[in-house]
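User: Hello, can you help with two protein structures?

Assistant: Certainly.
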Amino acid sequence: MDKNLEERKMAGPDYAGAADTGRTRKVLRAAVLPEGDGEKLERYLRKNLEFTRAQIRSMKFRPDGIVVNGRRTRVSYILQAGDVLELRLEAEEASSEKLKDSQAGAVDCEAGSPLSVWLKQHVLYEDGDMILVWKDAGQVIHPAHGHHADTLSNLLYACFEEKKEKVVIRSIGRLDRDTSGIVVFAKNKTAAGRLWRQKEQGIFWKEYLALCEGHFTEADAKQTRECVLSGRGQWISGLPGCGQQKSGLPGVVLTGCGQRKSGLSGVGLPGCGPWNPALPGADLSGDDLDLPGGSLPGLTWQVIDAPIAPASGELMKMCICPDGKPAVTYYQMAEQYENRALLRVRIATGRTHQIRVHMAYLGHPLVGDVLYGNESECGSGLQLCAWKVRLLQPFTGEEITVQKEPVTAYQI
């Protein structure tokens, strides 16, 4: 056995790999655990390392895509405990080349500030598999009509180029142009797939701060139903109105265990499903959020369940429509002011303008919302911010929570 292989085995499992340094991970290295002794390689990849059939198939056709003990190997290979696996997650030269011609414009959108300064100000977390970045209000995530060089993706690509890293830019979810907050990007295809799966299962969630117009009353509660987020991060039904579907609006019904019964099959609720006792959920009682008025009044959340569809005759506007796509929003009062209210918001679906449409539907549009709100309140910009993200590291399963409170918004 060659010396390099001995060194790799002595080092033990390298499941974190590039994640420790922040360098983009292209190859995953892991030593076969004792329970994998005598197991077929393909089964071990699926059962123990949680690769999908499609991901395994892609690796098979990459040069040195699946290597065991330094040699390219078929997936029918029978493993021994201690075997060293090297799995190529993505081609070495894979990157978002289409963004390359826009680098100069991307830097200009930050008024000529050096990329290193931008990185320090905007990158909140980075490892070998993902990077969490703060998006300013008014910035677009991907190139689109009218925005070819000034997007968040352009900036990220330029930053990776400066560090001489080849990365494909893949955002996991999105934010509207006028919404500020945290955006998650995967740095390899496998990580992207796992993060999307977490998002579908409700393991990966975002929480928003929304400043709304008006004073919330009991009349508003009649348009919603009530749920409680327990210390374990589970949505609990059984409260008055909880688990009932709004009349005439085909949406999602909550069962007694807090799982969807219809409307969105196979998708968990934000922050809770499927519950795993080893992975603490979202216990909001322990959150550190510096708000006027201090601590939050309990853990009761209201649920808005109202389908959303494009508004007829409008280019960008959405509306509540019985025939629209299911849309579910959870909100909790953080602070009630004289004529405005600050809410904490989570969404179980990701419809266009969902929070904005649902709040306007309640009669409390977001402050600064030019599409759905009061024009006289629009001078301060849209008061909506994705301030907090919770997810699991795609390969190690470590729980990661990142939060950043807005600095200039929400000036009451």
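That covers the first. Now for the second protein you mentioned:
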Amino acid sequence: MSAIFAAYADERLGATALANRLNDAGQRNRGGRLWSNQAVLRVIRNPVYIAKITHGTEIYDAKHEPIVDEDLFARAQALLDERSAEPAVVAPSTSEYLLSGLVRCQICHGAYVGAGAHGRNGFYRYYVCRTRQAKGARACSGRRVPADDLESAVGSSLLDTFSRFEIFEQGIHEVYAEIGNERPRLEAEHASTETQLRETVAALNRYLRAFEAGTMPADLCAPRVAELSARRDELTAHRDQLVAQLRAAIPELPSRELIGEIRVEIERVINHASPDVVKQLFAELIDRVEISPDNHAYPYFRVPDAKKPGPIGTRASCRTPVRMGSHHVEVAGVEPASSGFSMGLLRAQPAGGSRSPFRHRPQDGLPADLDVPELRVSGTVRVSLTR
């Protein structure tokens, strides 16, 4: 641990650079996982390494010997304070990334976030895997995706989908069948999660009592308490999600007229509204967009609930995602796939002459170090019960 503090305080390495050094050297954190910049910062901030332990806002002397020299620890804290006082780099407005919070990596299951780089002809926007950005290619091989291409392709797929009422008929029939099959599994999983949560809370309380009684040193107690606390929070969140799924109402199929009205509104917003309004529309009707290892994008759209009147966002709040678009959407146009049924999934034929509602940024003048693979959007229609 002293080497981590020395690299940070004396070599003045940043947390991300230090995490990459540790990962490249084959070192792993206490949980056996790759280091991230946040994991490095948690170590540097932790006074347990100088024989101190925190409880709330109070700091107490622990019963174990210091692991890191107090002067080295103090220099690291001073550098932390110095860096936190530096003015932050102004990030692009979130409205510039219309799919913020919606793009997921199929490799690591983490989020894609907005990023950018300057080229000869201006600023180029991308979505990048947060895991790869924080921990490097060793942690995830997910590749960056041009933001203009992804937003344009997903917008076109959304318009095409709302032109096909039969897609919604197929999707809602599947969700009815899945609800009937899923409920016994959800109830069993909820009972199991409740049991695990009780056991985790009991174990956490035992460690805390042992520390308070002085029968367990802090250097052994603190990591286990942190691990159990994280596990408790994870189980609590999962239990709450299961309860929400069990209580969720069954959505009603929207009418053909309602789907047509929503499509007209989608087209109006995409073609004429501000980026903030387009982003809000995407957040209401798109559950997620998954990026695969071969750089395909799979969008999941929400089925509007006919039982909930009001604006699009209210009707879409049932959050029943439908995986849409069995075609490949490329920069040059649309490449249709065959229509029909296969393995219980409806394959949709995109409308001919589909055009992108977004303006593409020219690709010449890209920074030389950027690896920008071709993006495609594809998928098959499927309903899942994620709400």
